[in-house]
Amino acid sequence: MAVFRTAKTDDMPYLRTLWQQCFGDSDAFCDWFFSERWLPELSTVAEEDGQILSAVHGWPYTLRIRNNAIPSIIMCGVATHPAARGKGLMGGCLSLFMQSARAQGFLALFQKPVDFEIYRRYLHFPAADAAILTAKNEAVFTPVENMLDSLCSDVFAEELLSIYQKNTAGYSACVIRSIEDMGLKLRDYAADGGRLLRYAPNGYTAAYAAYYITDDQLLVPEIMGNDAHAALLMEHLAAMAQGRKLTIKTFRGPVPDGFTAEISPWGAMAALNAPALMREVCGFDDISVEITDPIIPENNGIFTFSGAVAPSAHIKLDAGRLTQLLVGYQDILSLIKSGYAEVLSPEALLLGERLPALPCFTVEEY
Q1: How far apart are CA 62 and CA 282, in angstroms?
Q2: CB 55 within 8 Å of CB 91
Q3: Residue 163 to residue 154: CA distance in whole angstroms
Q4: 13-49, pLDDT tens digit by residue?
Q5: How far apart are the C-alpha atoms of 195 and 210, rounded to whole Å?
Q6: What pLDDT score was predicted for residue 20?
Q7: Distance between CA 178 and CA 142 in Å, rounded?
Q8: If you ran DSSP here, which 8-state letter would residue 298 be given?
Q9: Given a cut of 80, is residue 159 above it in pLDDT?
Q10: Selection from 89, 108, 113, 88 nearest residue 98 by Cα
């Protein structure tokens, strides 16, 4: 029988092996991850007969939700040994991970699912979109002046952080990076050979893009700058691609000439402590909600939007749809129309004015 527990330092080599068995990541990436980005106290494992067969990993970040700084945890590396799949091990690890993270003070969880459907049962629903841009085959691009190209390095963390902060300030569900977070992310890109393209007119960096280039593709997981500067970066990257497939992940917004865009759900979130999350994000007590949550028992009940226990509810939501509302990914009318919210009293419709939909975006942070 499997035992579900928090990871220990001695588990690291076994977890590294499991990671590579499941994801095939390079030794360089795993060297970086397990030296800089792994905290055993924020990881859970399933162990059977002395062998670790499944694991979930976490890392703390501060997430912006409606301009509130929320203590949150990213979930990644959800892995089960191929021979042990279908036995419920991932579910046990994930449930323990969520309950443990809640007990450690995290209010929200976010992740980039490989398959959103897998996590619906755990109430991890889409909470951020991304525009995936690709260059048109027939488009012709020319190099742009004032571009600086180098390996990714944390020596650029300070100058890039202000650009990141400025360009993500208007988005909900977005990580509020510290200088340490910025350096960590740049070292993440560097671990697998990531490069940095900076647009630097007048000798200072005005916009940047982190990218990977291989024989057949050029992938840009992060690009930051105003619309005009980002378009120049994209033009230059397309010229660099030289027949490779070019894919750029960015915000919703104007699509530069020569590109097509597909808007897709990218990040998912879940409420670890729904009452506390409502208190931090909302703080009003004249509307109450009945919350259901099969994973975290403490989230079940009737609460005001200031997190206090209430005698009766104006609306009924599960914890996942409540998270979408709090973040701004969906407003209350869209949740009602989709059948995800049950109105119990007309006062619930006031949530339409108080919690409007917002642009939501996040960069993968591991």
Answers
A1: 17
A2: no
A3: 15
A4: 999 999 999 999 999 999 999 999 999 999 999 999 9
A5: 6
A6: 95
A7: 35
A8: G
A9: yes
A10: 108
